[in-house]
Each structure stands twice: as C-alpha cells, then as structure tokens.
User: Fold these one by one.
Assistant:
Number 1:
Amino acid sequence: MKAAALQKSPDYIQKSTFVEDFIYNDRIEVFFDKTFTISGKSNTVRSILILARIDTAKSEFKIIEESDLPSKKYLKKQDKTISNDADFNGDGKKEYAEIIAPKIIEEEMNCANGDCITEIKFSDNSIKNIEINNCIGGMLELEGDLNNDGAEEIGILDDWFTSRWGRYIVYTNKNSTWQVLTTLSVDRFTVMDDAKLRSSLVRKIGKNKVEISNYIWNDEQADMIIKKSIITIP
Ligand SMILES: [Ca+2]
Ligand SMILES: [Ca+2]
C-alpha cells in the first residue's frame, strides 16, 4: 500500500517526535522519529529535515531535504581512506595518512562508542592523530604545502549518515599540533564522485593565499551552487 492510501485509512495515525537538531552556519538538521500506527501496529523510522539558510541577513530558512533514514547514499565510496605519501610534519621524510572510522550502528544513526569521532592516523607515529567530531569516515585529499612552511596540508571530506551537505576540512601541522586551516561546506555526493572537483576545492593562488569553493544554496536554481572566494592563511 502506498503512503497516500494509508493516510486515507481511518485507523492510520502518524506521530512525529523531535529527537535532536544540529545548527550549522548554512543549515539546520532536525532529526525526528516518525511513528506510523496502522490497525494498532506501530513502526518507527528516524527521519531528517534539512533547512538551508537562504538569507543570512534575515536568517530565513527553507526546507531542502526531508527523508527517512538512514540514507543509503553514504559510504558509497570507500577509496581514498589511505593517502599517498607526503611530508605532513615538515621533517623531510614522507609518510602516509589513514582514516580510522568509528563503528556505526546504522539503524540508530549512531556510533558504537557514543561519539562519532573519526581519526586520521599517520604512518609516522610521532605525528599526533587528527580527530574529527560528528564524522563517520570520509576521503583524504593531499593539498601540498599551502602556507610555505615545508609541511604539507591534508584535507578530509567528511562522511555522515545523512544529507548532501558535508564538510571538507583542511588541517595544517603547526608546532606538532593540528589546526584547522579552513572548513568548507560542500555537496558531499557530488564531491565524493568527482576527484577533479575534490582537488579543486582548495587552490593555492599565491603566497599564503588560497581560493576556496563553498557550496551555497541557490533559491532560483533550487540547488547548491559553488561560490568561490579567496582567503589568506597563516
Ligand atoms: Ca614527515
Ligand atoms: Ca604547510
């Protein structure tokens, strides 16, 4: 039976219960449980509502995605979890990086250890791991030496249970500590599928100057579009 047909049935009841929400600069993700009751039998599915900020000044939002979870689109690409060799700490020796993803419980959209923390681990054990919160794996990208300090920067396209909206985070190693150089908002599915696009998200254009590509919601096109900007990095 189709949902529409079910809804006409007199003993069909649907209830939504708020679970939690995450507020980002460009969007709000609201998680809720939908409980369907038909002839006394109940079934609950976790759902998501994504509201994109369409006007930063007026803080107007618009629903751009509504779906039952989990989305099957995530984790579709398992490559790029080990990087090619690069010198991430600037000691003149090359090492590689590897993604250590948390164990996930798919039905609950949660991680076995509670917090969903992904780590980037280096083959040179003297380099600290990078920890990324609210992340269940992803793809690594080498950025080269963006700020001319002799150490190469590393980026990760984060993976999550839901949503096209993802983060591309670039880290830099300063005095043996990892710092976020920039965090971009990206169309995760498009970027995951396109290596060329991934490598063009952050582009060195001069000494300590990089061009970054953020995805923003465009109301006219009813889609996400790329907005390029130039930032100065330390
Ligand atoms: Ca090294
Ligand atoms: Ca560097």
Number 2:
Amino acid sequence: MPFRPRSVHAYLLDTPGGWVLVDGGLGTDEAWSALDAGVREAAGAWAAVRLHVVTHMHMDHVGLSRRARDASGARVAMGRLDAERMAHAAAHPAEEAEYRRAMLRRCGAPAAWIDAVEGQRAEAQPLAPPVEADLALDGDGGELPGAPGWRFVWTPGHTAGHVSLHRPADGVVVAGDAVLARITPTLGVNRQRADPVGDYLEALLRLEALAPSRVLPGHGEPPEDGPGRLRELRRAAEEETETVGALLAEAPRTAWEVVEARYAGRDLPDAARLLALRETLAHLDRRAAAGRAAIETRDGVDGFVRRRDGEGERGASTPEHTPHG
Ligand SMILES: [Zn+2]
C-alpha cells in the first residue's frame, strides 16, 4: 500500500464448501497482481473461490472485492452494519459527506481542515470501488454460510459491522483489524453504534471466550500470545478513556483541543489526526454517557467538561443497534 501500514493480509481458507477468500487489498493493480498470484498458487484458479468474506469496509480490505467477485463468481459476505453502511454511502454520497462534516464540526475542527480531509478522501475513493454484499452476517455470531467448520463472530469497534472468523476444531481466529500485534486498532464515532469503545471491549471478550489457539491479524505478524494480546488491547482501550478524561478541565474542551493536548509535540498528518479525532470523540462520548463528563454544545460544537466520578452519575447507557435510516 502507498501508505502505512504498508501491507494488508488476505487469507484463503480451505473448506469442504470450497475456498474462502478473506479480505483482498487496496484497489490498485499492484495489489491485484499480488492477490491474483496468491489465489492461483494456493487455490489453483479463481473459480475455486466460492465465498469472499470482507472483515470490514475499510478500503485496504474491500478495495479488490469487486474484482475478486468478477474473477471468481463468489458470493460476497460482510457484517450487516458494514454492508448497510457501504450500500448507503454508494447510494447517498452527499448525505454521507454531510454526516462526516457535521461530526468533524462537532469535534471543533476548523472548516478549512475539514475541506482538506474531504478532498483527500475524494482522491482516495477510486482505491475502493463499493461492492454490494450478497450475504449480510447478522447477530453476535453463527455458522459461516457455505464454509463448513467456520463461524463468524461480530467484533465491532474498528467499524460497526466488523466480523472475525473462527474455526472451533483448532481454535484459529482470523481477526481482521479487531486484533493487531503491534498497533492498537483505531476505534471511532460512527452513526450506527452509540458506544464503539464499549462495543470493542465486548468484542474482545467475545474473542477471549473462544480461547483462540492462534489469532491471525489484518496487518503484520500474528501476536505470539493471542489471548494475552486480547487482554492487552482491552486494557489499552480502558486506559485510553482515562487518559482522554484526564485532559478535561472545568472549562469546556473540544475533541480537537483534547487531541492537540493528547499528541502535543507530535506532528500528526491529517489522516492520523482524523483517526485520533474520531477515537477521542468516542472516548469522550463514553465518559459523558457514564456521567463522567458533561457536554456543552455551542453552534454545533461540543465542549466537554470534567466531572468527578459519581457526580451527576447517570450510569453507562446500554449500547443498542442504531442503524441509519
Ligand atoms: Zn486494515
């Protein structure tokens, strides 16, 4: 990939129902050549691939899906919320753009900066042509249709509809970006789920309950100790809520200002700042929902105010499905 992380994994699962391709790569000719060579080497021909599972709708995972489907005739399966998000974005691009802009305005991002990141986004768009899912994987988990011996597990957080795959016979988990060995997967505010941080903590518990023998990530080397890495990621997400909360004060601070303080002295490229904003806002929202921060809204911009634990306690809101219209 022309940006970090430099590579993404695609996996081929050999099942009695035929080969299953998990993820693909960025929609470039270079990435296609690599995927094409790998599929031919392992499965013999594209026609042997009967199912294509996309762990989540990010461009580095879904960018080659349309080409993979055209080459193989395989059905495309995605988590329900990501399938819906992708279909909605393809059908209503202007409305999607307005949602993103409003979310960034809510963070306190300057208008010129929002224009710049939207411009970069438009430039990157051809790297991920949208693909329609033939199969929407719904619920906390279940059998993976057409792939005997494999189950899917709903592992939201990185995206609302992220799914991982699990082979109970030997405990192998193909985790997508739910688990990475050296970096923590980014979480982010989205319009489909109220508490992406809470979602992610539950997803990690769901994976921990499987006591996986091996966890295969979307990027980089597999963690040496899968269950240990799951616990580490859970602690890191919980700590981040505290770190972000410690940057609040009596006077309202926007997510933009919290990110400035959180990464003080570090040069954040726009793409990294965007991820940091969405993630920081998710942690701030989580604190507010638990009564540990107050929100003061002015002209569509949310300022967060510190609240001592217990003060104005409302209790954590119950995460629920909030699909977009
Ligand atoms: Zn990724």
